[in-house]
Amino acid sequence: MAASAFPSSYPCSVKKAVACSGRGRELAVAKASNKDVDNSVMPVSPGELCVRGLYYSINEKDAKESRRIVAEDCCFRDYAFTKPFNGNKEIVAFLEQLGVAMGKNVKFCLEEVHEDGEAAWASWHLEWKGSEIPLTRGCSNFRFSKQGDGVLIRKAQVFIESPIKPGGFVLILLKAVTSLFDEFPKATESFLKSPEAVILFVQRIYLMFLMPFIKPLLSSYINLGQFVARALGYILSVLILFLKLIFK
């Protein structure tokens, strides 16, 4: 696809971030001016610019930019959650919470962004002060709708690397699940039509019958964990003080 110049409506901070991104790593360039960016040498399509702008807005905690990039009727599905986020307001609120949870030093690092017409794909990982955090790789795909001389995100799907690596066990598990599907086809059809309803039903069963017994047990473990954490904190403080006295 031929490269296109930046639409005039795109903020200069995002243009500069893309211009300096290298491997997709956004830089702190919020104060850049229009003359700092040479649009004629920027091989970035509107869709790629939109994707990079989204992750830039998360990294920089820029809710205003997220709000501008996300369409009003957007559907944002992060498969770490049971339900999708719908609409500009709900999605922007989620992205704000994500930015807060990441803190000051964790950033999304875009590895690759590819666009094909009205769709784009991005692979990424998280970094802490420029160092990759293990088990944080993921990929996202996006669908766009046209907005003036640019595009907005109208659909997004986010897939995150699993921290559990079952290896060959996953094939055994897959065989067990498919056997159950074949053995109980009617129940399977009901589940596949509305999996969220089944999950909610299981949650209700848990809250009604298991929660009264599990909650006290969990509370005792939590209290024990807090005591151990405080004790370790005191021990660490004493150890640091001791080392300072030795190596002073």
Please describe what this structure looks like.
The protein is α+β, with helices and mostly antiparallel strands and 248 residues long. It has two domains: 12-160, Roll (Nuclear Transport Factor 2, Chain: A), CATH 3.10.450.50; 183-247. The chain is built from seven helices and seven strands, in the order H-H-H-E-E-H-E-E-E-E-E-H-H-H. The protein has helices at 12-19, 46-59, 63-69, 88-102, 169-183, 185-193, 195-247, and strands at 70-78, 85-86, 106-116, 119-128, 131-132, 138-147, 150-160. Strands 1, 2, 3, 4, 5, 6 and 7 form a seven-stranded mixed sheet that branches. Helix 1 (12-19) packs across helix 2 and helix 6 (185-193) packs across helix 7. The termini are far apart. Mean pLDDT is 79; it is low at 1-10 and 19-41.
Helical run tally: 7
Overall radius of gyration: 24 Å
Intertermini distance:
63 Å
> What percent of residues adopt helix (DSSP H or I)?
40-55%
- SSE string: HHHEEHEEEEEHHH
Q: Which word captures the global form?
A: extended
Structural class: alpha+beta
